[in-house]
Amino acid sequence: MKIDCRHVWQHISAYIDGDVDAALRSEIDRHLEHCEICSAVMDSTRNVVVLVADDRVFEIPSGFSERLHRRLDAVLATGSPGS
Amino acid sequence: MTVEIKSGTAEREATAAAIVRVLAGDTQLFHDLIRPVERAVYGMLFMLLRSETDAEDVAQETFIKIYRNLHNFRGDAKFSTWVLSIARNEGLGWLRKRSSRPEEPLEPVLDESSGDFTPALLTDWREVPPEALERKELRACLCRAIMNLPPIYREVVQLREIDELDVQETAEVLGITQGSVKVRLHRARIMLQKELVPVLKGFAPVTKRSWFGRRV
Predict the structure, then answer these.
(1) Taking each helix axis from N to C terminus, what angle separates B2-23 and B79-97, rounded to the nearest 10 degrees?
(2) What's the predicted TM-score (pTM) here?
(3) How many domains does chain A divide into?
(4) Interchain CB distance below 8 Å, A82 and B71
(5) In the predicted model, is pLDDT for residue B1 greater than 50?
(6) Given a cut of 60, is residue B113 above it in pLDDT?
(7) Residue B87: helix, strand or coil by DSSP?
(8) Which domain, by its residues, includes A64?
(9) Contact A4/B at CB under 8 A
(10) Fewest CB within a 10 Å sphere: which of A63, B34, B54, B60?
């Protein structure tokens, strides 16, 4: 089986997650070795995935947790759930 | 692997024990029970509502609801998955109530077969290291790109990439199949790559060039 660029793009996400079978993985690896476009697409997508997942991207509003637990304290003081 | 499974089971057992104690009257323990999921609940709601104050308000309501309905937790799902499903329902309910506000459709805007999910093509990629996230502009670019995704892709990015839920847990929270989770995540990643590649180039570390114009 020989795969083309379009075929590789269809599997980018699964490839990054290690969710492709061994035969397909080795085909993709072989393609990436000689295709600089797919290689750069794969590297850039992986880079984007790492950056997007970083905790620093979305900050939780300052004081969120304190306000939440203060509010909950008032509810908890009324007794056990369902009571 | 075995360790992970064990720690997962131990975590579940600890959570189940904490819930029993809260239900038996040790209500203060509820604070500790929810701390590990606070951030994920806020994130899920922010992705849905796109407003910090709304997400915070609905997050508070969600946790109150969770406290009052704690006896309904069955333990066949993970506590975090159950909590996130409730948060999502609260968020959707809130969106429906705010009818004066133009709602975004949460149904898939494209069916499985249509749409162009071709990545941005390039021949060379210079890695943007995580340290670059110290720069506020980069964080803003990433936020914008995620928030510009259609809602069904945004929520899958939140759960899979940011909260690091596995495919099965994500499918449970969203009420869709594992296959759909994978398709949506794939499309979301391609859309983000397409949107972010031109922007990220400006954040790659500067490389020196030799006399012949080649990077060294």
Answers:
(1) 60
(2) 0.88
(3) 1
(4) yes
(5) no
(6) no
(7) helix
(8) 5-76
(9) no
(10) A63
Six-digit token pair at B132?
């670059």
CB contact under 8 A, A68 and B43: no
Query: Are B12 and B84 contained in the same domain?
Result: yes
Q: Which of B56, B76, B97 is the last residue of a domain?
A: B97
Please give the structure tokens belonging to residue A52. Answer: 């997007």
CB proximity list for B183: less than 8 A, separation 6 or greater: B112
What is the tens place of the pLDDT at every residue in B22-60? 999 999 999 999 999 999 999 999 999 999 999 999 999
Q: Where in the sequence is the domain holding B155, given as residue range(s)?
A: 130-203
Q: Please give the C-alpha separations between residue A48 and each of A29, A52, A56, B102, B192, in angstroms, as whole numbers.
A: 20, 6, 14, 30, 7
Within-domain flag for A65? yes
Contact B70 A82 (CB under 8 A): yes
Mean pLDDT of chain A: 93
User: What CATH number should be reported for the domain holding residue A19?
Assistant: 1.10.10
In a domain, B123, yes or no: no
pLDDT for the residue numbered B2: 38
**Could you report the per-residue pLDDT of B69-92, keeping only the tens digit for each?**
999 998 888 999 999 999 999 999
Model confidence pLDDT, tens digit, residues B133-182: 999 999 999 999 999 999 999 999 999 999 999 999 999 999 999 999 99
* The domain boundary residue, chosen from B48, B81, B97: B97
Smallest Cβ–Cβ distance between B27 and the set A54, A55, A80 belongs to A80
Angle at B128 between CA B127 and CA B129, to 5 degrees: 105
Decide if B36 is inside a domain: yes
